[in-house]
Amino acid sequence: MTPNASAPTRRSFLASTAVATAAVAGGMPLLAACGGGSGAGSREGTTSGKDARKLLPAYVAGNVVTPDIPSKNGSAVGFTGKLDLADLKTSVPEKLGRGSRITVMSPFWGSPPKDGNAYYKAMNDLIGVDVVWRNQDGNTYDQKLGAVLASSDVPDVVVVPGWNMTGKIPSAVIGKFADLGPYLSGDAVKDYPNLAAIPTDAWQRSLFGGKLRGLPMPSSYVTGIVPLYRKDVFDEEGYEVPGSADEFMALAKEITNARAKRWACLDMKWTAFNAFGVLSGEEKSLGWNEVDGKLVYRVETDEYLEALEWTRKLFAAGVVHPDAELGKSNATDPGPKFAAGEFLIYNQDMSQWWSRTAEQATQNPDFEIWGMDIFGHDGGDPTLWAKNPAGIFAFVNKKASEDKIRDVLAVANVTAAPYGTKEYMLTNYGVEGTHYTVEDGVPTKTDQGNIDVMNAYVMIASPAPTIAHPDFPEVARGQVEWQQRMGAFTRKSAFYGMQITEPARWTNLSNDFEQLEDDFVRGRKKMSDVQQAVSDWRSKGGDELRDWYKKLLDENGSAAS
To answer: Coil, strand or helix: which one is 276?
Structure first.
């Protein structure tokens, strides 16, 4: 695995770790909003504005390593050189751990390695702690999480992904986990320089119940869903990347030849939402924005209906691969048929830009995948909406002693080390010779590395979003520059970056829209069905939820920009 810490949602995390691609395949989730309250112990609302500023760690940019491509417009930083082990920097010169035994519960995809393996031992020796992992199946983690947090046996550290912040979990987070503010707020964070270099937006997402409780895995706020295309075939055939919805349709018709088993694309709904400027569906709070003084939810907008209508026209025109027509495209790996040229365009997480390149490098050297810039549907600039800047959090048991909390922070200070440091390499690759080798500046995991060095310590905390592929540096550059171009058109909606807990009675209000969207674009439902669903949403609680969000907005102000 090459490092790509730019997108910590369920889809992108699993895709980038390449351990559970089947779980990545579902549609863009309409995740429940989650988090803190406007006062300590509050179970609903948010913490932002002046209240948040008092709680946030001071930001101190790291200077141990200089990226080849600095962050711009919300992008990750990029590294485009080969890896020189002799040139690795040290970001944690002194062992900060005090020897505590720390139990950690975290989701894990795959078969957990044995306790006491060489990776765990090396990490614990470096930090000065004894981390004991209680790995749980990531596919059923929500069930285990609920049971553990309802019990009296809560581990010292519990990792909670944003997609599991549903039901009673946000309240449990507030009730069960420690306030890290005394150790991290303001200048206190300077005791942990790698944590101080985590962007402020990611820390704001770590506020729960009026306290700084979470250690974040930061993410670029630029959309992670990229229209990926076969650049080699485009170049060979003379196809031009489209700059509008009409141009995309014309190109799709030109590409498609069903008799030759070639279609233009898979289901392009996610790209349609971006091209038509639809508010984000990643988390419910991001789907709200103020328009002419009124709060509007994404499904109420003309842009939402127009994006679905355009996607439906692609299906109706016969330019979509039959797998997607049958609804199979999100349940199977699109890689083989994409490599075979059965379709030339699909939208997925950015991590597949690299993974598809790596898959085909030896067997099909002419294969080239690239990311298509998102176009405005009318041919102008797109209006894109920011996703949240952190989505996975580690929490410390509120019963932990000060020494134990500081040992957890010592772990986090190592795991948040930047790319190009010894700490980063150990965290992400393990022990040289045992877990990975380096040839021509490219690190490659050994069989033992693929067993031991999986999604463990990276779950405690991570550095600022980073993209680096020493094996395919041109892909790393392409990814970062794509984020920078798209970031220039990215706006922040009213509740961007806020950790919000909706009242439980409205938790499932929007859950049926994703299936309805998929049915509509495939012709199984009518536009009147979508409009009726929006009307039902309003009458069953949407209008009340609007009033609730408006009160939050009045109290905390807007993050929109």
So the answer is: coil
Tokens of 375: 């176009």
Find the length of the chain.
561
Q: Which pLDDT value is given to residue 48?
A: 54
Beta strands (DSSP E) in 397-521 are 436-439, 442-445, 466-468, 490-491
> What 8-state DSSP symbol labels residue 211?
E
Q: Mean pLDDT for each 10-residue chunk of the chain (561 residues)?
A: 39 40 26 31 52 90 96 97 96 97 96 95 98 95 94 96 89 95 98 98 93 97 98 98 98 98 98 98 93 95 98 98 78 88 97 96 95 98 97 97 98 98 98 97 96 94 97 97 98 93 89 95 98 98 97 85 69
Through-space distance between the first and last CA atoms of the chain, rounded to whole angstroms:
35
Nearest one of 216, 295, 227, 222 to 265, comparing CA atoms: 227
- Pairing between β-strand 157-161 and β-strand 211-212 as defined by DSSP bridges: unpaired
H or E stretch covering 481: helix 473-487
Residue 408 and residue 97 in contact, taking contact as beta carbons nearer than 8 Å: no
CB atoms closer than 10 angstroms to residue 132 = 15
How many CA atoms lie within 13 Å of 47's alpha carbon, on the beta-carbon side?
A: 27
Nearest Cα neighbor of 107 from 544, 430, 456, 487 is 456
CA 165/CA 91 separation, integer angstroms:
33
83-87 long-range contacts (CB < 8 A, ≥24 apart) are 83/438, 83/441, 83/442, 83/443, 83/470, 84/441, 85/425, 85/432, 85/438, 87/420
Q: 354 and 252 in contact (C-beta within 8 Å)? A: no
Neighbours of 45 (CB within 10 A): 24
Q: Residue 98: which region, alpha, beta or left (left: phi > 0; alpha: psi -120 to 50)?
A: alpha
3-state SS, residue 220: coil
